Give the backbone structure.
Amino acid sequence: MKVLMFGWEFPPFKSGGLGTACYDLTKGLSRQGIDVTFVMPAAPEGANAQFVKLLGANNFSKNVKVRKISSILAPYQSFTSYAEALKQMKSRAGLKKNPNDIYGTNLYEEVYRYSIAAEEIAEEEQFDVIHVHDWMTYQAGINAKRVSGKPLVAHIHATEFDRTGGNPNQMISHMEYQGLLAADIVIANSNFTKQNVVQHYNIDPGKIEVVHWGIDPENPHYGINQKSPFDDEKVVLFLGRITIQKGPDYFIETADRVLKYLPNTKFVVAGSGDMFERMINRADELGILDRFLFTGFLKGADVHRAFQLADLYVMPSVSEPFGLVALESLKNGTPILISKQSGVSEVVNNALKTDFWDVDEMANKIVNLLKYSELLEELKENSIMEVQKFNLDEPAMKTKAAYERALTIRR
């Protein structure tokens, strides 16, 4: 079976869990004998060298090849972030070339331009199924379906309602709805996501398949018990995009409560986003800024080292469709506290779980865990054992079954 897949990230370049998820999914699919052509946005050579490096990412499997479309689209992009990316591209291009000849003047125009380029690729490639990831690729999938007559599988990693804390951009949510409606099969990464899709878009639940993410057990960066630079201090980690969806403000309020009982605790924040300054300002207002370390955006081995230095990883997400980062924490031997409003909470048993808004309960659990080393060690041992069950094969097999179902529907 041949699959034409449209996505946004692919290691070694990625902005978050979506890149890891796409890499792992295609790696798992290759083991199932699926040939994948992965189409992703890429700036012209010389404009962004990272994308040139990206083209070597398919070396892990002969069954996966990467094609690029000149584009500055990126996951989790907004009108503002697209405009900033275009501004930076103009600066790099100088007077030699007008970037508007290459890119759209706004986010919607760029999505449209991408979809036209994707249509041309669909006419060139031989494939059986189209697989698209999140709203910015949905129009590309619709176009590819129209010119090829092949079935469309729409993967939803996060709805516009998740990303915005329940305040969606109406045009984006409409484009998301159109893609989900046009798809023959929708893949949701959790029951939590499936319920959101049904609730907000009234999509037939019968065509939504739930495929929970797995994790690559072969990652060479996994490790346990790195020596902490903070001496005898306990380390609590927040790692992810610093946006309203991830609940960084609840992390700050929780830290304030924890420090009243365990003042020798260090809180590490790894990530970047539009709430970065707000986090710093609130910690300063509470008089606890000296107990925080803000690392900025991390990638590659540094992400895994951050987990290995921490005693506990906290994911207080307001709306987390899955939360692959929680599994990464467990693979690095670090116990987790996750919000009940997450997909990963459906599949992990050995974890602390609270509602994202219940900062008192979060603080209670953190204090008890850090105060009693026996509890911490028991949770650590049990979670390390449990995470062994997660792999790439099960999600790949379920995705392959979704492809086969889509092919049956289209016949």
In short: Residues 59 and 65 are 8 Å apart (CA to CA). The mean pLDDT is 85. The domain at 234-389 is CATH 3.40.50.2000 (Rossmann fold). The chain has two domains: 2-214+391-410, 234-389.
